[in-house]
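Exercise 3.2. Students should predict the tertiary structure of the chain below and write it as structure tokens, then compare their answer with the key that follows.

Predict this chain's 3D structure.
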Amino acid sequence: QVQLVESGGGLVQTGGSLRLSCAASGSIFRIDGMGWYRQAPGKQREAVAGITIGGSTNYADSVKGRFTISRDNAKNTVYLQMNSLKPEDTAVYYCYIDFVGRRSWGQGTQVTVSS
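Answer key:
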């Protein structure tokens, strides 16, 4: 069984930075894709960033140039560095991993950006 534990969320002012982490544990021998989604109140969950096992990345247009995704394969951990945060980035952020053809999700961490 795979477990994902997220950390790093919180309250920050506009223009500030946060770094989210998501550590996977359990019977894992290789993780394929990893990434982040977010869901704001009253809105659908949307993809934020993803990273392949080879290190290729993709980003939502709304976060390009501000967010950076990275991964540490030795630690089974994915990170999301968020800079120049805006109030519209306020949401619950969920990490995921793709492992043996299945996607597992973290519990979510709240990010609130005050104006």
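Discussion points: The mean pLDDT is 96. The longest strand covers residues 18-26.
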